[in-house]
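Structure in, sequence out. Go:
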C-alpha cells in the first residue's frame, strides 16, 4: 500500500530534564501539541496501526498491527464485498476530516472521504457510496466521483487560544502554571532547580508515533522517547488481570474460539474460529482510540501512561467532548459487534442521494452485519495474526507445535462482553491476546470440556 510521503514538518516542545537521574521531569508544550494528542485519541484503531506501521523503526504496539496486516494480507474473496476490506484498512471516523486538517503536524494517515454515484445517468435509485467498488441497486457500478461532502458543516475550531500545558513523563497533562510545576518538583523530591536542564526538541510525526507506541507500555514515556532514544522497545508478555466488573459469559454465546495449547506449560499454539470471532477482532480496527480506552477502563491499562493522557484531556476539555458520540460510535453501516453492545454505528442521514450499505453484496438488503463471508474458518496466533484456514495446512500446524499429541489440548471459549473487552485490551497493550483470554479463566473452576 502506498502511504503518504514522509512529512518533515515539526513542532517544538521544551523539556525540563533532571540531570541527576537523566529523566524528563515535564515537557512544556503549546496547544498545538495538545491538539495533536487530542486528535490522535479520535483516530480509529486501524489508523493508529497505519500511523505506527508507517514508521518502521518503531516496535509495533500490542497486536494491533498484526490485526491490521492480517486484513491487508487476507484474500479479497474472504470478505463479503471489496468495500469491506477498505472499510477496515481505511476506517472512517464520525469526526470526518475536520480534526486533522488544521493540525500543525501531519499525523493523519487516513485517506480522504470520497463519494461515488451511479454510472447510469438515468438511474432513479438515488444512491451513493464511499467505495467505487459498490454496485447500485440498478445493477450499474457506483463509480462516478462527485463532491458529496459539501453539505457537511465545518464545525467549530478546536484549538482554544495560545494556552501552554505541562506534560509529565507519565503523560499527565495540566495547565502550565508555576504552582503546578512546583508541585511536580516537590513530588519528585527535587529541591534544587539548578539540577534541571532545559532543552528544546522538535517533534515530527515519527516522534509522535514513537511517543504513542511507548505510551501503551511505559510509565516514563517522554524519557524513553527523547533521552533514551529508544526507537525499539521490549514488549514484555504482559500479564493482564481478569476484569472483575461483570458476570462471566453465559455458555450459549454464539461466538467462540477454540484454542490449542500445550497441557504441560499452557503455551498457546493457535486459535481456530469462524467468521463471527474474526468479525469481532476486525471491528476493533474501526473503534476510535478514546472510546476503546473508555471501554477497557483506565485502571486496567497499568502498563502504560496512555490512560493518564486520556483522563486528563477528558477533564481539561470535557465541555467539547460532550455529545461527540451521542449518535453512535462508528459511521453508518460499520459493523456493530453483538459482543460489545455499546459500539453502535450512526444511522445514515437521508439527503438527495442515500448511502448504500457497502457491506452488502445483495441488492436491496440494508443494515447487514459483518465484514466476512459466512462459514469461513480462520486460524489465529496468540498475537492475532489471522489467516484463512483454507490457506494453511492443518497437518503442518500440528507438526509446527513440535509436541506429542498427548500433550496438546483444546479449550473452547465463548466470547461475551468480558472476553471481548479482554481481547480489545490485549490488542492494544499485550502481544499475547489469546493468552489474555485464557487467563480470564485461570482463577475460575476448570471449564467443562465442550
Ligand atoms: Zn443506479
Amino acid at each position: 500500500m502506498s502511504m503518504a510521503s514522509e512529512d518533515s514538518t515539526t513542532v517544538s516542545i521544551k523539556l525540563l530534564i533532571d540531570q541527576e537521574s537523566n529523566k524528563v521531569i515535564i515537557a512544556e508544550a503549546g496547544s498545538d501539541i495538545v491538539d495533536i494528542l487530542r486528535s490522535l485519541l479520535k483516530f480509529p484503531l486501524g489508523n493508529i496501526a497505519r500511523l505506527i506501521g508507517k514508521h518502521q523503526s518503531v516496535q509495533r504496539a500490542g497486536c494491533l498491527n498484526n490485526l491490521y496486516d492480517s486484513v491487508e494480507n487476507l484474500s479479497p474473496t474472504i470478505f463479503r464485498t471489496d468495500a469491506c476490506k477498505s472499510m477496515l484498512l481505511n476506517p472512517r471516523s464520525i469526526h470526518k476530516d475536520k480534526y486533522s486538517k488544521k493540525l500543525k503536524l501531519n499525523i493523519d494517515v487516513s485517506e480522504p472521504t470520497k463519494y461515488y454515484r451511479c454510472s447510469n445517468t438515468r438511474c432513479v435509485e438515488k444512491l451513493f457510496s464511499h467505495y467505487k467498488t459498490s454496485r447500485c441497486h440498478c445493477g450499474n457500478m457506483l463509480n462516478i466521483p462527485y463532491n458529496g461532502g459539501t453539505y457537511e458543516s465545518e464545525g467549530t475550531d478546536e484549538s482554544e487560544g495560545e494556552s501552554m500545558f505541562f506534560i509529565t513523563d507519565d503523560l499527565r497533562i495540566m495547565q502550565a502554571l508555576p504552582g503546578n510545576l512546583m508541585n511536580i518538583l516537590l513530588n519528585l523530591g527535587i529541591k534544587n532547580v539548578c539540577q534541571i536542564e532545559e532543552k528544546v526538541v522538535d517533534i515530527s510525526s515519527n516522534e509522535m508515533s514513537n511517543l504513542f507506541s511507548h505510551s501503551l507500555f511505559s510509565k516514563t514515556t517522554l524519557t524513553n522517547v527523547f533521552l533514551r532514544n529508544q526507537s525499539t522497545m521490549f514488549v514484555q508478555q504482559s500479564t493482564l488481570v481478569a476484569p472483575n466488573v461483570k458476570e462471566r459469559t453465559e455458555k450459549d454465546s454464539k461466538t467462540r474460539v477454540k484454542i490449542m495449547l500445550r497441557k504441560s506449560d499452557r503455551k498457546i499454539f493457535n486459535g481456530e474460529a469462524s467468521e463471527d470471532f474474526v468479525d469481532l477482532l476486525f471491528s476493533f480496527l474501526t473503534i476510535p482510540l478514546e472510546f476503546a480506552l473508555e471501554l477497557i477502563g483506565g485502571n486496567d491499562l497499568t502498563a502504560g501512561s496512555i490512560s493518564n493522557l486520556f483522563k486528563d484531556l477528558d477533564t481539561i476539555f470535557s465541555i467539547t467532548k460532550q455529545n461527540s458520540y451521542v449518535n453512535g460510535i462508528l459511521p453508518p453501516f460499520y459493523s456493530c459487534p453483538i459482543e460489545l453492545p455499546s459500539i453502535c454505528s450512526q444511522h445514515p442521514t437521508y439527503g438527495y442521494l442515500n448511502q448504500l450499505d457497502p457491506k452488502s453484496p445483495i441488492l436491496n438488503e440494508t443494515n447487514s452485519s459483518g465484514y466476512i463471508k459466512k462459514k469461513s474458518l480462520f486460524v489465529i496466533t496468540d498475537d492475532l495474526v489471522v489467516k484463512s484456514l483454507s490457506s494453511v495446512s492443518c497437518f503442518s500446524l500440528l507438526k509446527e507445535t513440535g509436541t506429542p499429541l498427548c500433550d496438546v489440548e483444546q479449550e473452547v471459549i465463548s466470547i461475551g462482553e468480558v472476553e471481548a473487552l479482554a481481547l480489545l485490551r490485549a490488542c492494544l497493550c499485550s502481544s499475547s491476546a489469546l493468552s489474555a483470554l485464557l487467563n480470564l479463566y485461570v482463577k475460575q473452576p476448570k471449564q467443562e470440556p465442550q
